[in-house]
Design a protein that fits this description.
The protein is α+β, with helices and mostly antiparallel strands. The chain has 18 helices and 22 strands. The strands form four sheets. Strands 1-6-5-4-7-3-2-8-9 form a nine-stranded mixed sheet, with helices on one face. The protein has a five-stranded mixed sheet with strand order 10-11-14-12-13, sandwiched between helices. Strands 15-17-16-19-18 form a five-stranded mixed sheet. A hairpin with a 6-residue loop joins strand 4 and strand 5. Belongs to the heat shock protein 90 family. Its main location: cytoplasm.
Length: 612
């Protein structure tokens, strides 16, 4: 028998290439099982295709991929009833790195009708060699359909392989992996079952794990997204939603469609009905699953932009080219088109539901802050995202949109006013709103973590400029306050000059303002970013980029009137307290809390003494 064994050298620089496959090409050892199951499924699809023209090629009734672990011999066998390989096929397909029988076969199908073509997964010849990540010896015994003899290919992955005659009763292939010492996990049926369900749960070929002589089905074999919507119940959608996203609620929206034409893909996506337990802000990538011909490839293809990362589900394509490992997707035009099409469909769904108000507010409360990121990040989609935004307001209860705000604008109003802070309740009582309320001007109240960033990126909505009320120098003169105004304090100009001198190192300017009613002072941005952005810059240790604020004084307030009438020395001493009061109103701490407390205590004591 040994005389019939033929030894051959691999047809490429196998040492270097195998080292690449085993140590660099794949990031996870478990990928080997996906590759071998994919190859087995391809072989069975090829046999099913040939059976269309040759009855002798028909698959057996119980045809499936069988995975058999044997702990005693430390082997793992993957068997199929596929097309099989002759001696020449073994030498050409397995004896030459990066040459694939599947790829050659797919080229021969170019003239065949699309509906008759089997779903071939493998496109490169290195997937088989991933077996050497877990095995120190691999044997392949195969008998081709229509042939009477079988052959065994064997290699230790060290630069050569052997071929010898073998026995196999039926056509098909057996791949036997002699596992390495650190690969015990792949001898456990439960582990193998988990891997099949992870990577090949939806391929049409049945896969079974042989456990103590009994076959146990390991894959569903039915891809829900490939079925017509008319054949799927709401319960089936909900069950799949819970399985794909590990959720316990019902989806807020279900998107199921098939794209055909230049690109062929099917998609089944869900917008969750509740926030995930893991804060969504911590994860910046979309986790929509990419499948190619039902075989799971990755959930890191970024099929949706980060601002739609709350969407879950599956996209399955026939056309996407993959790189040699099928783990790292190439940035191909086809993938870019799929991303654009899927994103557009999700945005269209959100737009339609927002107009119908189908519980849109619950969606917004769950995922609104994430959606806002799209205004900042996605220039092309800003005009589509802006109508989807919802806000709290100084004028109405509940949520409101840009369009609704514009419908309530006063005659002559040319800007959409907004105010950003950390807490919406604090916003409602902010001194920044006093002058706007007095004039019947509505202000949008923004308190999400992204609100300091996106308004300037959007710029305007329907030609109405977005304007932060903290920017200062806002001209409200065309809108008269309801109930009129008191006369400004006498000597206010001298008082302003004294305060400005005293705070020269702290502020960019000191001026009077007509946008206060009940408060004595308020801060505004002295130029550059608004106050909330300045706070964020200071918290990030970038105070130099924050600039200095402007201190605005209400010349009609009793405190300012009294200080303006006092000696100039009193005005200079009061300047620091006024500045700290303005900081506290905006949610900041006094510059020196202890010194501020002493000044307030002293002022209270003096006031109490005067009353006595």
């Amino acid at each position: 028998m040994s005389e019939t064994i033929e030894r051959h050298e691999f047809g490429a620089e196998v040492g270097r290439l195998l080292d690449l496959v085993v140590h660099a090409l794949y990031s996870d050892r478990e990928i080997f099982l996906r590759e071998l199951v994919a190859n087995a499924a391809d072989a069975m699809d090829r046999r099913r295709f040939e059976a269309l023209t040759s009855a002798s090629s028909a698959l057996p009734p119980d045809a499936k991929v069988r995975i058999t672990p044997a702990k005693e011999g430390r082997t793992l066998t993957i068997s199929d009833a596929g097309i099989g390989m002759a001696k020449e096929d073994l030498a050409s397909s397995l004896g030459t790195i990066a040459r694939s029988g599947t790829r050659a076969f797919s080229q021969s199908l170019e003239a065949a009708k699309a509906e008759d073509r089997p779903s071939l997964i493998g496109q490169f010849g290195v997937g088989f060699y991933s077996a050497f990540m877990v095995a120190d010896r691999v044997t392949v015994t195969s008998r081709k359909v229509g042939a009477d003899e079988a052959w065994t290919w064997a290699s230790e992955g060290q630069g050569s392989y052997t071929l010898e005659p073998a026995e196999r009763v039926e056509p098909g292939t057996d791949i036997v992996l002699h596992l390495k010492d650190d690969a015990d996990e792949y001898l456990e049926p439960y582990r193998l079952d988990h891997l099949v369900r992870k990577w090949a749960d939806f391929i049409t070929v049945p896969v079974a794990i042989v456990n103590e002589g009994k076959e146990e089905a390991a894959n569903q074999g039915t891809a829900l997204w490939r079925k017509p919507k008319s054949e799927i119940t709401e319960e089936q959608y909900a069950e799949f939603y819970r399985s794909v996203g590990m959720n316990f609620d019902k989806p807020w929206a279900t998107l199921h469609w098939r794209a055909e034409g230049q690109l062929d893909f099917a998609a089944l996506l869900f917008v969750p009905g509740m926030k995930p337990f893991q804060p969504i802000e911590n994860e910046r990538q979309s986790k929509v699953r990419l499948h190619v011909r039902r075989m799971f490839i990755t959930d890191e293809a970024e099929l949706l932009p980060p601002w739609l990362r709350f969407v879950q589900g599956v996209v399955d394509t026939e056309d996407l080219p993959l790189n040699v490992s099928r783990e790292m997707l190439q940035s191909t035009p086809a993938l870019a088109k799929i991303r654009k099409a899927v994103t557009g469909r999700v945005v269209s769904e959100l737009t339609a539901r927002s107009k119908k108000n189908e519980d849109y507010e619950s969606f917004w409360e769950n995922f609104g802050p994430v959606l806002k990121e799209g205004i900042y990040e996605d220039f092309e989609r800003r005009s589509e995202i802006a109508p989807l935004l919802r806000f709290r307001s100084s004028a109405v209860e509940g949520w409101t949109s840009f369009a609704e705000y514009i419908s309530r604008m006063k005659d002559g109003q040319e800007a959409i006013y907004y105010l950003v802070a950390d807490d919406v309740e604090a916003l409602k009582s902010s001194a920044q709103l006093e002058g706007f309320r007095a004039r019947g001007l509505e202000v949008l109240l923004l308190s999400d973590h992204v609100d300091a960033f996106w308004p300037e990126q959007l710029g305007s909505f329907e030609d109405k400029k977005l304007t932060s009320v903290t920017k200062g120098n806002l001209d409200l003169s065309k809108f008269a306050p309801e109930g009129g105004e008191a006369e400004p304090a006498e000597g206010i100009d001298a008082f302003v000059a004294a305060v400005k001198t005293a705070l020269a190192e702290e502020v960019s300017d000191v001026r009077v303002t007509d946008r206060l009613v009940d408060s004595a002072v308020v801060l505004s941005a002295g130029g550059g970013p608004d106050l909330q952005m300045q706070r964020l810059l200071r918290r990030a240790g970038r105070a130099s980029g924050a600039g200095k604020p402007t201190l605005e004084l209400n010349p009609r307030h009793a405190l300012i009137r009294a200080l303006a009438a006092a000696p100039e020395s009193d005005a200079a001493e009061a300047a620091g307290t006024l500045f700290d009061l303005a900081r506290i109103q905006d949610g900041d701490s006094p510059r020196d809390p202890a010194a501020f407390a002493r000044r307030v205590s002293s002022a209270l004591a003096q006031a109490h003494g005067r009353r006595e």
